[in-house]
Design brief:
Blueprint: H1 17-36, E1 40-41, E2 47-49, H2 51-54, H3 59-62, E3 67-69, E4 75-78, H4 83-93, E5 101-110, E6 122-131, H5 136-152, E7 159-164, H6 165-175, H7 179-190, H8 194-203, H9 208-215, E8 221-222, H10 226-231, H11 237-256, E9 262-265, E10 278-283, E11 292-296, E12 310-316, H12 317-326, E13 337-342, H13 347-359, E14 363-368
Parallel strand pairs: 1-5, 7-9, 13-14
Antiparallel strand pairs: 2-4, 3-4, 5-6, 6-12, 7-10, 8-9, 10-11, 11-12
Helix pairs in contact: 1-5, 5-11, 6-11, 7-8
């Protein structure tokens, strides 16, 4: 046997034994939290047409998709994200009336990144989408459900940062910044690279007043009080309405009783182009990136011919498991297997015993004895 064949390619890995069992426990707990909010399960294909994702992610991310061709010459990709797939599916099969649609999902996603730095190229996501509801109550439901899903997994110490893409976009509109520059700028601000963002603004001759306003978004981070400071710095209606919505969102979140988890960050942006309003990410210690993220994407479904407002979130199960292990959080134990061994002439009695235990809910292995005694 070629010994190289027992290894996995870079960026993917085998999951087995206790870790695999622990993941199933955590996935069940996250799923149960979504079901308690009335969300229904959906499955979408592992690969889709390239065009489902092409316009919705940054040019950098588009280059990192796993692409291949079918027999008709169509460009296909392994899904890098669930949201466009779910939006396509909902546009096709739902939205026949004006009622909200609540969907949850789980599965693996794929990104052929060249900057691994310990990250995977295949990772599991679980998430939910609420479509056909543009209310601030829908925003609060989504954030509160994500918090309950994370806390239900056993995670105790985490924080959810909340922003609104419209605050930044309102300033860009007021400054007359074109779409190409806005996309470049958003990518740098999303990565907290303010030196690169400032260079873009200077190179494109953006007036100093607006350069200062855009770079100053990084200062509005912390408690709900930061929102008052942010609104005092802008005059355009889009940015001011974004702050007002965040203030109302915080009021509804206090009704859910989850305000202790909430902070605000108006510099929070995403590499994905489809976010239109509130955006949020969950962080905890022991993991270098957000373990969950989401936001509002009111324009995405119109791409598939059925305009409707929408908001969603996803949890990266691989990162959540890393956090749980590194924080030494004890997970509910997986039931131990009962092993029943038998000699050939004892098979009928051993089988009956195994069946009785299985009927009682036990996990039972029925195994023939090896030569020399029991296993």
């Amino acid at each position: 046997m070629n010994r190289e064949l027992v290894h996995t390619p870079e960026g993917v890995r085998d999951i087995y034994g206790k870790e695999c069992a622990d993941r199933q426990v955590v996935q069940n707990q996250v799923h149960e939290a979504m079901k308690r909010f009335g969300y229904e399960d959906i499955n979408t294909p592992t690969f889709e047409f390239f065009d489902v994702f092409a316009e919705e992610i940054s040019a950098t991310s588009a280059r990192e998709l796993y692409k291949f061709f079918d027999k008709e010459g169509n460009t296909l990709v392994l899904r890098p994200d669930f949201t466009p797939s779910v939006a396509r599916c909902v546009s096709k099969y739902f939205l026949e009336d004006d009622q909200p649609v609540r969907i949850c999902y789980s599965g693996n996603t794929f990104m052929n990144t060249t900057r691994l730095q310990g990250k995977l190229r295949e990772y599991m996501q679980m998430g939910a989408e609420l479509m056909n509801d543009d209310s601030v109550q829908a925003d609060a439901e989504m954030i509160s459900m994500m918090i309950q899903a994370l806390s239900g997994s056993g995670l105790a110490e985490f924080q959810v940062s909340v922003g609104d893409a419209d605050y930044y976009k309102g300033i860009c509109e007021e400054a007359g910044i074109d779409e190409e520059t806005e996309a470049e700028l958003r990518e740098q601000i999303a990565g907290k690279n303010y030196f690169a963002a400032e260079k873009i603004l200077v190179d494109r001759n953006v007036p100093e007043k607006y350069r200062d306003m855009l770079l100053k978004v990084s200062e509005y981070v912390g408690s709900v009080d930061e929102l008052e400071k942010a609104v005092s710095q802008v005059e355009n209606s889009r940015s001011r309405q974004a702050v007002a919505r965040l203030q109302e969102l915080y009021r509804v979140l206090t009704m859910y009783g989850v305000e202790k988890y909430i902070s605000f960050d108006l510099s929070m942006l995403s590499q994905y182009n489809y976010y239109t309003g509130v955006i949020f990410k969950a962080y905890t210690y022991g993991v270098g990136d957000a373990i969950a993220k989401g936001g509002r994407y009111d324009d995405l479904l119109s791409k598939f011919g059925r305009p409707a407002p929408a908001i969603g979130f996803m949890i990266v199960i691989d990162d959540l498991m890393s956090a749980l292990y590194r924080q030494k959080i004890e997970l509910p134990g997986v039931q131990e297997r009962v092993i029943i061994t038998y000699e050939p002439e004892e098979y009928a009695q051993a089988l009956q015993k195994a069946q009785d235990l299985r009927d009682a809910g036990r996990y039972v292995v029925l195994q023939k004895k090896k030569l020399g005694g029991a296993v």
